[in-house]
Amino acid sequence: MIRKMMVVLLGLALTFTFTFSGIAGEKGNKRKGKYTFRTTCRECHKPDASAKEMGPDSKTQAQWETVFNKEKGKYKELKCYKEGHWKDKKKNEALTEKDLLNIFTYLHAHAFDSPSPAKCK
């Protein structure tokens, strides 16, 4: 009886774990995000370029979360987004949601207050 109860509880625990880990949110690819950031954003956000210099360490993790928040869409208020600069230069197409998630993952992982802050060179 106790053994059956333990098996049922273990099964429920595993079910909840897999269910809620999928709901927790998508994860982007830092490596792809770094590439996309460098080929799309860095052109304008480097020293002596048309926009303010910016790299992953320009903001804290919380600030990057605010910028890329899907519900609030703060990135849609940015001048470069409004002017259509957020394009894949090779394909000449707008960045996809997956591209934005990858960029966010890269920037967030290397933000000013992250365990591994990084400048984009």
Question: Could you explain the architecture of this structure?
Answer:
The protein has 121 residues and is mainly α. The protein has a domain at 27-109. It contains 5 helices and 2 strands; from the N terminus they run H-H-H-H-E-E-H. It has helices spanning 2-23, 30-41, 61-67, 79-82, 97-109; strands at 87-88, 93-94. It has a two-stranded antiparallel sheet. The protein starts with a helix and ends in a 12-residue tail after the last helix. Mean pLDDT is 80; it is low at 18-24.
Helix-and-strand structural type: mainly alpha
Radius of gyration, in Å, reads 19 Å
Tell me, rounded to a whole number, the average pLDDT: 80
**Could you tell me the strand content as a percent range?**
under 5%
Question: Which residue ranges are poorly predicted, with pLDDT under 50 across at least 5 consecutive positions?
Answer: 18-24
What is the makeup of the main sheet?
Answer: 2 strands, antiparallel
